[in-house]
Amino acid sequence: MLAKRIIVCLDVRDGKLTKGVKFRGNVEIGDPVEAAKRYYEDGADEIIFYDITASSEKRSLFLNVVEKVAEVMFIPFGVGGGISSVPEMRETLLAGAEKVSVNSSAVRKPGLIAEGALAFGSQAVVLGLDARKVPVTEEIPSGYEVIVDGGRTPTGLDAVAWAIRAERLGIGEICLNSIDADGTREGYELNLTRLVSDAVSVPVIASGGAGKPSHLRDALTSGGAGAALVASIVHYGEYPIPAIKRFLADSGIPTRLARDRRESPAP
Fold first, then answer.
1. Is 51 part of the annotated catalytic residue set?
2. 47 and 10 in contact (C-beta within 8 Å)?
3. Higher pLDDT among residues 219 and 49, named by residue
4. Please, what is the end-to-end C-alpha distance for the chain in angstroms?
5. Between β-strands 77-80 and 46-51, what pairing exists: parallel, antiparallel or unpaired?
6. In this predicted structure, what is the pLDDT of residue 22?
7. Whose C-alpha in 14, 45, 146, 173 is 20 to 30 A from the C-alpha of 205?
8. How large is the C-alpha radius of gyration of the chain?
9. pLDDT bucket at 64, cuts 50 / 70 / 90
10. What are residue 227's DSSP bridge partners?
11. Domains within the chain, CATH numbers bracketed
């Protein structure tokens, strides 16, 4: 069985690391490059950066931050926020990222997924899917609607249907974020995670709501996720990555146990 991954999410605004709740009220909590280095040294499997206002502000993302991050850590990392074309994907990958995440732009131009997968391979293209719970309707039978522009714009798209379509277009994995659970530290939205995990064959990253290690265990078992995204619980020091991984291993979940990378940073 493949090892489950622990992925640290770094939300960046104006070059600063931030954190909010339910996509609102973000406050600055540090430097993203320093944080990336620290989480790399602590044993994170991957890191993903989101420029949280690039899409809503209709601007390109922070390639200077991407380049600095690539110099200080040696694990896969992805970048999302405002990427709306194959040339922008190429620029991001050339800056040092191994993956690009598309979200709002893919909803508006689904062909971007296929173009990116053809140019760089499906493994390099991640779908960022932000969803909010809504009443079940004929148009949204799952009860979860896709929301774009950093949680600002409803789309009328059913989250499960969009995930299925994105897989057919060539997406390599899906980072599934519950807007309702984001930043609450009350646990992942397991029903949403299971619905999408059962509907697609690509890996699903559970995102939004982690508050303690048992939440990750639940997402990786009951939720069917292949990876779990964390933010607040590591940013504020409640649960270091090594402790989370030990808990998961003790729970019988295959995990790459964290090792100290300070002595020998190169893989």
1. no
2. yes
3. 219
4. 23
5. parallel
6. 60
7. 14
8. 17
9. confident
10. 5, 205
11. 5-250 (3.20.20.70)
> To which H or E segment does residue 32 belong?
helix 32-42
3-state secondary structure 201-215: CCCEEEECCCCCHHH
Residues 6 or more apart whose Cβ sits within 8 Å of residue 133: 143, 144, 178, 180, 189, 192
Could you please report the per-residue DSSP string of 76-102? -EEEESS--SHHHHHHHHHTT-SEEEE
What does DSSP say about strands 5-13 and 16-21: parallel, antiparallel, or unpaired? antiparallel
List 11, 45, 149, 158, catalytic entry: 11
Query: Which range, of 41-55, 83-97, 105-119, 226-240, averages the lowest pLDDT?
Result: 41-55
> Catalytic annotation on 42?
no
CA distance 213 to 187: 10
Catalytic residue among 42, 130, 149, 182: 130
Name the percent of the chain lying above pLDDT 90.
70
pLDDT tens column, 120-168: 999 999 999 999 999 999 999 999 999 998 888 999 999 999 999 999 9
Cβ pair 167, 160 in contact under 8 A: no
